Amino acid sequence: MAAKQEPNFKVVADNRKARFHYEVGETFEAGLALTGTEVKSLRTGKATIAESYAHVDRHGEAWLVNANIPEYLAGNRFNHEPKRPRKLLLKSRELAKLSQAVEREGMTIVPLKLYFNEKGRAKLQIALAKGKKIHDKREVEKKRDWSREKGRLMRDKG
User: Fold this and answer.
1) Which residue ranges traverse the bilayer (predicted)?
2) 30: domain range?
3) CA atoms of 65 and 101, how far apart (whole Å)
4) pLDDT tens digits, residue range 99-118?
């Protein structure tokens, strides 16, 4: 059996709560239009995308809203705004697919992961997602707890 290959990218920010709050569907990889100080700040690994979301405006452009990339300490007067909207770079087909899903099916565009790919470019993994109800979240939590408890029981028994 072949060994599992290591992913060739560095994860900067991960939205771990997204899979709990949303039922994740199709995923896309989007580029980000960033300034120089934003890229340098991302390389330090301090960004957060936990409470952010993406939307497609009426001009057909996708934007990442409410993502926090802190100011670069050595950036002085050329620094950026930490929570400014950032343009997502996607193909026109992907943009059309995202906007149609949001308009017709009531889905949300949720960022899952912010990383640098093997070429050193900042990329954002986004997904079309549908919000979970409270009872769905409880059910997932019960299953997780039961599987953890089952593992404990099996380990103690055998």
Assistant:
1) none
2) 10-132
3) 18
4) 988 888 888 899 999 999 99
156, part of any domain:
no
42, 122 Cβ separation under 8 angstroms: yes
- Please check whether residue 45 lies inside any domain of the structure: yes
Q: How far apart are CA 15 and CA 2, in angstroms?
A: 30
Euclidean distance between CA atoms 28 and 111, whole angstroms: 9
Is the pTM higher than 0.85? The answer reads no
DSSP H helices, the chain, are 18-21, 36-44, 92-105, 134-157
Residues in the chain: 158
* Cβ proximity of 51 and 45 under 8 Å: no
- Taking only the tens place, the pLDDT of each residue in 31-40 is 999 988 899 9
Tokens 């949300």 belong to which residue?
A: 108
Joined together, the tokens standing for residue 134 give 């409270």
